[in-house]
Amino acid sequence: xxxxxxxxxxxxxxxxxxxxxxxxxxxxxxxxxxxLLAHPELARPDTELWFAGDLVNRGPDSLGALRLIxxxxxxxxxxxxxxDLHLLAVVAGVRPPxxxxxxxxxxxxxxxxxxxxxxxxxxxxxxxxxxVMVHAGILPAWTLEQAQALAGEIETALRRPDWHPALHxxxxxxxxxxxxxxxxxxxxxxxxxxxxxxRVCHADGRMDFHHKGEPxxxxxxxxxxxxxxxxxxxxxxxxxxxxxxxxHIRPDAICLDTGCVWGRALTAxxxxxxxxxxxxxxxxx
Length: 285
What we know:
This protein is of the alpha/beta class. It has helices spanning 30-37, 40-43, 62-71, 82-91, 104-107, 112-120, 144-158, 164-168, 184-196, and strands at residues 3-6, 20-23, 48-51, 76-78, 126-128, 131-133, 200-202, 207-208, 221-223, 237-239, 248-250, 253-255, 265-270, 276-280. Strands 1-14-13-2-3-4 form a six-stranded mixed beta sheet. Strands 5-6-10-12-11 form a five-stranded mixed beta sheet, with no helix packed on it. A hairpin with a 4-residue loop joins strand 7 and strand 8. Helix 1 runs parallel beside helix 3. It starts with a strand and ends in a 5-residue tail after the last strand.
């Protein structure tokens, strides 16, 4: 594989210590990730690597992707995406494997138990260095403090010794809108759906899970990050999950899902100046 592109960013002062690079949806494309991580900027031992979720599924080597990211140790800060939660749900017996899944290699691996235990202890949200990272989005009704606390509710449930039953409460599309009075499974579903599945919403904030194309292709819908009344728009939210949107950088929202699993590119963004490095993913198709 060859590097697809490297963009030059505006000059910026060198960060104290190592840089932070954020990597978009890997989805089991371990070969492309290995090539990207070999780039001199990312290979430095003091570089911190964030991963925007969907580490596994649909690509050819979900097992290799998990092992590679886990082996990075403290350098890696991955979060959970909807495909990662799906893997946990399959392990828990809550959902059957899908026809297009490529997670059987993980399920059959001799180190499956260790990998699953590591995976279910990952966060759903990272807030650091003046940025927030989630897999899909943050509802406009939430402050960042609230979003972090709500993500923590799901993280706590997944980290319990009896974590399997919690997966039952995470699946379903209703309710479509946040309400502070929500409790139990309804509350958990809204939190998980916003953080790991949301792309577009109605103007009143109701989520829609059927639209997967261009941002404004469905009349009456708008990207979640364009909804009016966002509580903390000054802090950029980095996300993946939306390959049809692709690389999208604006002051308040940054999408890094550039469709590696569809043969396009795997993208890394340097946090301090938003410099971009992309790895060609033709071999992942």
